[in-house]
């Protein structure tokens, strides 16, 4: 949902930002799989560059793609994501961070690498018409320890 997935013979490290509103809604970006028509949604973020730490990558990605400054990234988990998209199979290691944004951050009137960014209400986390990814994310978001 940002740039293209890594080639199928590589594992791509990415960092994503969990941003929640007071009502529990999650900031997400979305894309439609051209092979299946399924809509995939995930928190904004993107690839980790060589020599860059995951926490630095998530701050950079939010600045570059959404024009917002993230502060105090706190790693919630690292999950492995193997998925099909566009007729291929891909593999990612996903660093999931909780981040703070300024109260006046202009969201979601932006796009993440050309994909729409919007608020997904908490009651749609298990909506069968969309796929919230990575697959382990809904359980992580339901964790009572996750503020």
UniProtKB/TrEMBL annotation:
Which family does the UniProt entry place this protein in?
Belongs to the Nudix hydrolase family.
- UniProt KW keywords: Hydrolase
| Name of the protein in its database record | Nudix hydrolase domain-containing protein
Q: Would the keyword Hydrolase turn up in this protein's UniProt record? A: yes
Q: InterPro entries this protein is in?
A: Nudix_hydrolase, NUDIX_hydrolase-like_dom_sf, NUDIX_hydrolase_CS, NUDIX_hydrolase_dom
Q: Which source organism?
A: Agrococcus terreus
Report the SUPFAM superfamilies cross-referenced here.
Answer: Nudix (SSF55811)
Question: Which residue spans traverse the membrane?
Answer: none
Q: Which cofactor does it need?
A: Mg(2+)
Where in this chain does the record put each Nudix hydrolase domain? Answer: 9-142
